TrEMBL record:
Protein name: Endoplasmic reticulum-Golgi intermediate compartment protein 3
TM segment ranges: 28-46, 345-371
InterPro entries assigned: Erv, Erv_C, Erv_N
Sequence ranges assigned to domain Endoplasmic reticulum vesicle transporter N-terminal in this UniProt record: 10-99
Domain Endoplasmic reticulum vesicle transporter C-terminal residue range list: 151-367
Keyword field contains Cytoplasm: no
Keywords recorded for this protein, A-Z: Membrane, Transmembrane, Transmembrane helix
Annotated source species: Rhynchospora pubera
GO CC annotation terms, alphabetical: COPII-coated ER to Golgi transport vesicle; endoplasmic reticulum; membrane
Pfam families linked: COPIIcoated_ERV, ERGIC_N
Subcellular location: Membrane
Length: 388
């Protein structure tokens, strides 16, 4: 008896009382609404499931408190009108750190006028350091001074000069000495430089690799002819090449400050600029934003995003500037943190229940409105028929 009383009490709590099927009345409008509701529920179910399976990215902003870090700047730039021999890469920053004519961790590719690669090497890049000619007395050639090249101890007489690589080799042969590495001999290095410039006339250059810089404001220079101009030497053999007016048309195939972040496209990737007038300096001003990206598996990538503005400084306006491309970069004090997360399964179930319950509730309201509306219209027609 106690069990029956308990069961009867549970029965009285039933929030879903059943109606005998004899009292059900099915309508055409109800069937149509039910079919539409089922389709809507199915579509919303697939949409919610797709969102559940897709990872969500949470974004936070914090103050960047890191200190003393280093940064790798990856780049790939093409200069279709500047030969590799005359191109140098330099870096400097506000802390005073400077690197000129960087050669390590960089690959250069000589490009034909039609764009295909002639030669690719990893032995460095840039204009050789062509200094003023080395004099016999050990100093460098001064302005208006007569040139008398050193024979590096192979002179037969005190007034003998070795002004070119061939004369130096003859002096060594007369002494019976073995020839040294000609790349380290002043005269031979200068003649080799001239030969390379002549051989690469009309070619372009693609430079790529990475630079290890301090995480402070600084700049990267791509300067054609810098090694030649800084030597303060006027080589007669190069006068025909017009080395004072370079075409710095260029394409930045890739530029990133740190590793690539999945889903992020850097604004200068594929950027191209074409020189249409006189030579000058093309400047990029970059604001670098430190970024930490963590994927679903917990793998963390410390990298950077950046924004950029551009400006061309005409070399013929005001003070004449050397032709080239300069990238000025500075760091934001704000760090962005991206974190990928999977959606909660309980949240997914809650949304599914809300979809099913919400659609059926709305459908019931619509069906009730239609049913009672039709019923009222029929009743009104009957009432009107009685009076006619």
């Amino acid at each position: 008896m106690k069990n029956m009383g308990f069961l009867n009490m549970l029965k009285s709590l039933d929030a879903y009382p059943k109606i005998n099927e004899d009292f059900y009345k099915r309508t055409l409008s109800g069937g149509i609404i039910t079919a539409i509701s089922a389709v809507v529920i199915l579509l919303l179910f697939f949409s919610e499931t797709r969102l559940y399976l897709k990872t969500a990215t949470e974004t936070n902003l914090v103050v960047d408190t890191s200190r003393g870090e280093r940064l790798l700047v990856y780049f790939d730039v093409t200069f279709p009108e500047v030969p590799c021999t005359l191109l140098s890469v330099d870096t400097q920053d506000i802390s005073g750190e400077q690197h000129y004519d960087i050669r390590h961790d960089i690959t250069k590719k000589r490009l034909h006028v039609h764009g295909h690669v002639i030669e690719a090497t990893r032995d460095g890049i840039g204009a050789p350091k062509i200094d003023r000619p080395l004099q016999k007395h050990g100093g460098r050639l001064e302005h208006d001074e007569k040139y008398c090249g050193t024979c590096y101890g192979a002179e037969v007489t005190e007034d003998q000069c070795c002004n070119n690589c061939e004369e130096l080799q003859e002096a060594y042969k007369k002494k019976g000495w073995a020839l040294p590495n000609l790349d380290l001999i002043d005269q031979c290095a200068r003649e080799s430089f001239v030969e390379r410039v002549k051989a690469q006339q009309g070619e372009g250059c693609n430079v790529g690799g990475f630079l290890d810089v301090s995480k402070v404001a600084g700049n990267v220079h791509f300067m054609p002819g810098k090694g030649y101009h800084h030597s303060n030497v006027q080589l007669q053999e190069l006068s025909e090449f017009n080395l004072d007016n370079f075409n710095i048309t260029h394409t930045i195939n890739k530029l990133s400050f740190g590793q690539k972040i999945p889903g992020v496209v850097n604004p200068l990737d594929g950027a191209m600029w074409t020189q249409t007038g006189s030579s000058g300096t093309y400047q990029y001003f970059i604001k670098v934003v430190p970024t930490i990206y963590t994927n679903v598996a917990g793998h963390e990538i410390k990298s950077n995003q950046f924004s950029v503005t551009e400006h061309f400084k005409d070399g013929n306006i005001k003070q004449k500037t050397q032709a080239g491309v300069v990238i000025y970069y500075d760091f934001s004090p704000i760090k962005v943190i991206f974190k990928e997360e999977n959606r909660s399964f309980l949240h997914y179930l809650t949304n599914l229940c809300a979809i099913v319950g919400g659609v059926f509730t709305v459908a019931g309201i619509v069906d009730s409105f239609i049913y009672h509306g039709q019923k009222a219209i029929k009743k009104k027609k009957i009432d009107l028929g009685k009076y006619t």
